[in-house]
Structure formats: C-alpha cells, structure tokens
Design a protein that fits this description.
homodimer, 172 residues, nine-stranded antiparallel beta sheet, globular
C-alpha cells in the first residue's frame, strides 16, 4: 500500500508505459534479452494441450537449449505433459527472469514450437544429452532411465516482454 | 557436476522417488500445500489457447485468489493472453514456489479452469478488486484503466506436485 502510494502517475497513464506506436527505447535490445533468457534460464513453464480435452495445461519443466536455441526438455513418460506432447506436440515454454518486486517488470520470453522426441540412437542424441546435463548436472541420475526421454522444440515464434512497457516479436 | 557426483543413488532408482503404488508419506499434506500456493503466490504461468491456431500459449500473470480459492487475474485487453481467453476461456495457471537448487524439487500446482470476465458492475466486482489489489497494491495504478479487466477462473481440477516423488490430484 505504502509502496503504491509512493509512486506518482499522471491520471490515466501507466508508469513507464509507452504508446504502442512509439519507437523502442534506445537501450532496449530484444535479441540480447531473448538470448540471455534462452541461454541462462534453468526452469520454465510448459504449456501443452490436455490429451483428452484439449484444455491448455501449464506445468514446470527444467530446460536447456540446443546449439540453435531450441528448448530441450528431459521428461518422464509417466508425466501428464509428456502424454500431452505425445498426443499433440504443439507447446510453448515461458522463460522468465525473476527479481525483486513486480514479476511483470522483469523480462520473459514465450517460445512457441512443436516438440520432437530425440531417440537415444539419433545422430544428435549425444549433443542434446550433453547440453542438457551441462545445465542440469543432477539430471544425470535419471537421464538414463527407460521412462525419461529428451525432446526438442525448434522455435516457431518468440514474443518477448521485457517489462510492462517493452515488448518485441521475433521470428527465427 | 561435482554436486551430481556427491549424490549416491542405487542403479535405476531415482533418489527420493517413490513407487506409484506406495502410500503417501505421513508428512505429505497436499491440501495444505495447495492452499499455501493459492493463497501466497503472486505470479503464475498462464496457459491459454492461441486464438488463431489453438497453439498452447504460456505467459506470465500476476495472480490473486477469490474467497473460494479461484484464481483472479487483472489483464490488459491489448495482451495476447486476454485475446486468447476472450476467444476460448479455457486456461490453466501454474503456481510454483521457488527455492534453492532444482526447481522440480519444490511444490507447484496447476489450476485448471475456465475464465469469466468480472464486469465492473457485477455484484462481486468490488470484492474481486479488493482481493486482487490487496495482493498487488501497485496494480491500483492501472486497475481503473479502460483496457484492464478482472477475470476469475473457478477451479476445475488441481494436480499438485510437491517434489519429484510426491504428487496428488484433487477435485473441488
């Protein structure tokens, strides 16, 4: 309450909000922010489609990225999200940086894509495994379990929000 | 790497993983954990359906809860997720607690539901507004803007994961 009252805003104007038509601020580099989120974030929110009802389903996953930035996940076949992407591989992964205060004031990236299973004998399986385990060393303990599989989602579209006032849309 | 090597696991057994058929540990109280996540979490990952393609879309929202635990959000009509729930109100909200180490070792709750807009003249509009602003005092600055609207998602189903080994499914 006290915090809210300290902030002074003109009537009808959101603090720091820029008009939709304004050119981006000079210090706003969406590509650098997106790369940082892709390369540094360890966990993300996965959105999948419920395999029975099509209801959007949000769940937590550990993430890494392949050389081209595609999100990589290592998931159990006993999990709901795995059953969902097996039925319909369309998904998105939210990568959000955390920090003090309002969560919406920090950068986050939605990575839309379609997951494909990386089978253990695929030519790139070793690279995927190495890259994932380098971000998540403890996952080594179950990466070899029969019900755990690696999946990769080539990036389709990545809307970025760096704060309430700064957003960008990029295609790769 | 060093961390992973320190943990000792039997071959083929995930540390702390319980068999699917085991009875829950005595100190596992899924209802208390779910309430704590619902009552205390300030931001969540919203999964919606892309209004044009049906692709699952994950985005960050500030959340509060109504008296019965239903998630409440305050969103801009300029946002993608708002356009999505206007076209198809089915959604889920992931509420995750954060902490040190592996994100998947901390409790999180997926709240599935269907959002309904709370119009400013609805009988419960004042309560919804009061409850949301009490968790997010700074949102007072734009809660009155014409393009910001409150939505509530009565809970349909809430799968809870308290760690890799502990999960529960509840219906309300």
């Amino acid at each position: 309450m006290a915090d809210a009252e300290k902030t002074v805003a003109l009537p009808g104007v959101m603090p720091d909000r820029r008009p939709e038509t304004a050119s981006p601020p000079e210090d706003f580099n969406p590509i650098a922010i997106a790369k940082q989120l892709l390369r540094g974030t360890r966990a993300g929110a996965l959105a999948t489609l419920d395999r029975n009802t099509g209801h959007p389903f949000s769940s937590l996953v550990n993430v890494a990225t392949d050389a081209d930035g595609s999100p990589l996940i290592l998931v159990s076949q006993l999990s709901t999200h795995t059953a969902n992407i097996e039925a319909d591989p369309r998904a998105s992964v939210l990568l959000a940086s955390t920090g003090k205060g309002d969560s919406l004031a920090h950068p986050r990236l939605t990575v839309l894509g379609t997951f494909a299973n990386i089978s253990a004998d695929a030519p790139d399986a070793a690279r995927v495994r190495r890259r994932f385990l380098s971000r998540h060393p403890k996952s080594r303990l179950y990466a070899g379990f029969g019900d755990f599989t690696f999946w990769r989602s080539p990036i389709l579209r990545t809307p970025l929000k760096s704060s309430r006032s700064r957003k960008a849309r990029s295609n790769t």
